[in-house]
Amino acid sequence: MPTQGPARRADAQRNQDAVLAAAAEVFATTGVNAPVRQIADRAGLGVGTLYRHFPTRTDLVLAVYRHQVEACADAGPALLRDLGSPAAALREWVDQFVRFLATKHGLADMLQSDAAGYHALHAYFLDRLVPVCADLLAAAAAAGEIRPAVEAYELMRGIGNLCIGGRDENYDPGRLITLLLDGLRPLAH
Amino acid sequence: MPTQGPARRADAQRNQDAVLAAAAEVFATTGVNAPVRQIADRAGLGVGTLYRHFPTRTDLVLAVYRHQVEACADAGPALLRDLGSPAAALREWVDQFVRFLATKHGLADMLQSDAAGYHALHAYFLDRLVPVCADLLAAAAAAGEIRPAVEAYELMRGIGNLCIGGRDENYDPGRLITLLLDGLRPLAH
DNA sequence: TGCTAAACGGAACAACGTTCCATATATTCG
DNA sequence: CGAATATATGGAACGTTGTTCCGTTTAGCA
């Protein structure tokens, strides 16, 4: 129940929703790095209002995509439970993440950007997803389906990096990530 | 013998060299995306002069790093000749490229940037290195050391992407690339 | 219907890439 | 050894962005 404090004004709530909707649209068309003014214009608001509700771009990006990240995090344990093999669960989970990331123009770039402002975004994604990935890796290793040859953190960053630049007829992140996971199989004797 | 045409002015040559030297220093410290003014200041020249000699950032980056890219391209056939196994040659060649790329702050980012201006840079690297990589892959595949599971173009882009963000105690592009190459080994029967 | 705190809008500033042309200077030629 | 001239230079100026700030507006309430 968020009924604490001196009740936020209705127009503020309305405008925040408008910014969120505008950002979602603009992110989808222009990309996650779209100019602030473009988002403000689309929402029919001034840039000051936008900054009031979302002080940093990270705040805005997170507000737009948080649900999908959470869904992805939740999918990990579910897949591990529902699919027979932990390795298959890992593969499906990674595929799901790649499908999410590769379609968000510029998001993968942002995630690894060394710009100070994006550190929080980077941290959120990793904090949320690395533990899930670690569980999947551990289960697959315990089942003898993969070698414990990589840390979840490193794997997640690698997957994120491979998604940068999207996908075209000559480059498909999914293929390379399959190869990466193939590299985790036990060595031939 | 470049003694054709109306002989370029001596100061022009001198200034071009100065820009090149300044750019090399600034790229190494600030990164490949350093502000144009910073490079011009370091060279003791105006920005106009810099733009005259290097109209685009791609021109400047290429002038600074061309030698190393060429050296990397030349190393491919040499390694294939000198090392016993094509797969070992591939691995060593890839390592060499990664060592080059991972130490150039921001260069890997630039290579995959979808900004229109960097297309030429992207193209130069790929045109120069993909054929070399393709030869190494073909040789290793012919020797039965790897499966023909990836195109040279895709592999090179993947390697470039994995180098983005450099290397720290928790993320080492080299480890992931090793894993990627492991994924090319023939499947256990 | 006023009052007041909350919220808004957009002008203003800083940092950057890029262009342009008045000025300065190598080089050449008489 | 001077002009003459093509070449080269410098940096002001413009457009685009992110970000801040404050005068003005307005929702909620008494």
Automatic annotation (TrEMBL), chains A, B:
Coiled-coil intervals: none
Entry keyword annotation includes NAD: no
MF GO annotations: DNA-binding transcription factor activity; transcription cis-regulatory region binding
DNA-binding region(s) from the entry: 35-54
Source species, domain of life: Bacteria
InterPro entries: Homeodomain-like_sf (IPR009057), HTH-type_TetR-like_transc_reg (IPR050109), HTH_TetR (IPR001647), Tet_transcr_reg_TetR-rel_C_sf (IPR036271), TetR_SbtR-like_C (IPR049445)
Record carries keyword Transferase: no
Annotated ranges, domain HTH tetR-type: 13-72
Alphabetically ordered keywords of this record: DNA-binding, Transcription, Transcription regulation
Record-given protein name: TetR family transcriptional regulator
Organism: Spirilliplanes yamanashiensis
